[in-house]
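Final report, Chapter 2: Outcomes

The project's central promise was a pipeline that accepts a single protein chain and returns its three-dimensional structure in a standardized token representation, suitable for archiving and comparison. That pipeline is now operational. To close this chapter, we reproduce one record exactly as it appears in the project archive, with the input sequence first and the structure output second.
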Amino acid sequence: MKKLILILFILSLQIVNAKENTILFLGDSLTEGLGVNKEEAYPHLVQNLIKTKLKKEFNIINGGVSGSTTSDALSRLKWYLKRKPNIVFVALGANDGLRGLNLTQSKQNLEEIINHALKAKAKVLLAGMLIPPNYGPEYSKEFEKMYLEIKEKYNLQFMPFLLKDVAGVQELNQADGIHPNAKGHKVMANEVFKFLKEEL
């Protein structure tokens, strides 16, 4: 019993005394790195770029979960906020769009996520997504507009498209044509790093 209490105490200290510089990547399978090794997913590669190019040490939390939508990410965020991240990189919404979910609700979900992160004194960065035109031009436009409106409302630094230079490029994606392969994650990491470095 005493040993269990000691272990819990040590774990609580680790949460409270988490590294000062911490970035939480809150996303879905694109962030998790579905189909590639954990070390090949873009959040881990961004950590390496920060270390080699900026000579800074950052603790990276990969909060990506395959299949995640905007509706189920808030509970995950609340848990990760215990580690007091300096920056929360929100990369959600792709699955909402692919499932044709109600975008009014998706927008509310994203705003709730952002508000929780801001209340925790974290800097919020937003990554946008685009969906294929076969979902209809109106829905596609509303989907893109959702991110722009949130960016303006909260005055957020905004990366318009997480899959820039990767989406639709066969050699950078897995067989499903949706999830980046290891080469694709390298491209993503470089773009995310370029976006992030001014905030570090």
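Archive annotation: The chain is about 45% helix and 10% strand.
This record, like all others produced under the grant, will remain available to the consortium after the project formally closes.
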